[in-house]
Amino acid sequence: MTDTKMWAADPFWGLGYEWDPQWLLTPSQKALQARLIDLCQTTLRDNAVESDKKLLFPRKNFEALASLGLLGLNVPKAWGGLGENHVCAAMVVETIARYGCPSTAMCYTMHIGAVAAALFRSHDNPTLQNLLKRLDRDVFIGTLSYSDPETGSHFWYPISSGAERVGDGWKVRKKASWTTSAGFADWYIVQTTSPDFGGDYSDLSCFLILKDEVKTEPSKWDGLGLRGNQSGTLEVDNVTVSGDRLVGPVGDGSRSNDETVDPFFMLCSSACWNGISLGLIDIARRHTTSKRHADVGMRVCDYPTIQDYVGEAVIDTNTSRAFTFQMGRAMDDVTNDCDWSIHRDLACLPRAKMLHWMWQVKFAAAKNVAHVSDKMLHACGGTGYKPALGIERYLRDGKAGWVMGPTNEVLRQFVGKAVLLGFESLDYWNQAVNERILHNELKKLDKDAKKALAEKLLSEAK
Ligand SMILES: Cc1cc2nc3c(=O)[nH]c(=O)nc-3n(C[C@H](O)[C@H](O)[C@H](O)COP(=O)(O)OP(=O)(O)OC[C@H]3O[C@@H](n4cnc5c(N)ncnc54)[C@H](O)[C@@H]3O)c2cc1C
Questions:
Q1: What is the distance in A from the centroid of ligand 1 to the CA of 202?
Q2: Which of 257, 321, 427, 449 could in theory staple to 445 by disulfide, Cβ–Cβ 3.0 to 4.6 A?
């Protein structure tokens, strides 16, 4: 591998390696990155245009990724995977989004999250082990189905779901409002309330569900950006599955969220937003250095205003990348470089202790891509407004960052509330009573209203 970033036979036309944090990567990760950039050049980037225009699921891009062994990126080498770590996962997603296809990067993010949830509880489960061994060979694509139509972006609250014990197996029902790759993925990790759930929504369980067990409506999918990601509705309609389809013990859902699904989703989706930001800067560099104004004899890049736009975009994006990779490294440090065998001890949850850091990472990356896409559009002027340059598609794709759960509104409130009132105040499952509000409202009632309320409460309590 040379120190010059290549694009086919020529030096890359965007930002070179001198603007990438290459010192974080091992020699083999750098070699993988160079091979992946080549694959983006030959295959992924052209398919991205087609996926966007035709709302096409990027299966062809997944086949290309499988040729590099990337579907089993974090799967142990003993099971045929690449045995890679969190830093590498962030690098791979960023590279796909930047040089190749953001829709593919998002579908791949969900695949990596689903693989992590399966690896976490695969130790005594041959069904999960077999699945993890065939990811690249069979281009066996996974995804996560969490968001519920009744609770919107509160994806940790699956109110329209449930499961019950049936003989040696489980009967599972799930309604999801959004599921990336819905109808196109081969396997799904779905979250439901637990079998024998008694009204406590923190009692969650995860199940492995296969393609022929879900009902989806791909023809109804449409969206502003990430149009290839096919995040449509999904239903598991009282499907009976065998006992080994339970991922982890009954009631393991919130541990699975905090230790795998949330950390991997926030790491990889942040890398996707950073990759889109870089993709926009690359295009703006190429365009502004080649477009010339005949009257003043200057190129667009010669105007200090444009230099300021690009300078600020690079600084802000590298701030977000530095944060994303730093947290990838921090998770590598606490997991022996993403060694899944530590989870033979079911109580070993080192990533979960860093969740509040991952909230900050996702907020920063999603906020940055919105700003950078705006400024790179401004830098490219009317030409950027037209689809042909590519800015317009990246801008639409980047818009998903802010609204994808956990949304940026929710995240900044989590952080502010936790800082000011403590983590216990977050109350994900709406269980803690806010005595301050309660007493303040009761103060407003007159004697008769208090009496009527007291009688109503007493009869309810009976
Ligand atoms: C491209 C894309 C792909 C997706 N893929 C998946 C997937 O693979 N799997 C999956 O499970 N889900 C997926 N989702 C769903 C996503 O995670 C959210 O659940 C979904 O975007 C929520 O949309 P909604 O209309 O229900 O928003 P709502 O929840 O109705 O939100 C509306 C507004 O209210 C705000 N809001 C909500 N709660 C609070 C609060 N407590 N405090 C302050 N403000 C609040 C929101 O931030 C937002 O501004 C995907 C979404 C998108 C856009």
A1: 19
A2: 449
State the total domains in the chain.
2
For residue 196, the domain's CATH number is 2.40.110.10
Residue at 230 is within a domain: yes
Residue 234 phi/psi, 5-degree rounding, is -150, 140
> Which of 154, 407, 426 to mutate to test ligand 1, by most ligand atoms within 8 A of the CB atom?
407
pTM (two decimals)? 0.96
Q: What is the Å distance from ligand 1's center to 152 Cα?
A: 5
* Contact present, 276 and 397 (Cβ < 8 Å): yes
pLDDT recorded at residue 3: 84
- Please write the tens of the pLDDT for every residue from 146-189: 989 999 889 889 999 999 999 999 999 999 999 999 999 999 99
List, in order, residues 6 or more apart from 56 with CB less than 8 Å away: 50, 228
- In a domain, residue 39? The reply is no
From 264, 248, 421, 270, select the one nearest 354 (Cα to Cα).
264
**Boundary (domain end) residue, out of 198, 221, 253:** 253
**Is 366 a member of any domain?**
no
Give the mutation target among 145, 153, 369 for probing the ligand 1 site: most ligand atoms within 8 A of CB.
153
- Kindly state the tokens that stand for 106: 């998002």
Q: Residue 106 corresponds to which amino acid?
A: M
Structural domain boundaries enclosing 198? 142-253
The answer as to whether 205 is a domain residue is: yes
Tell me if 144 CB under 6 Å of ligand 1.
Answer: yes
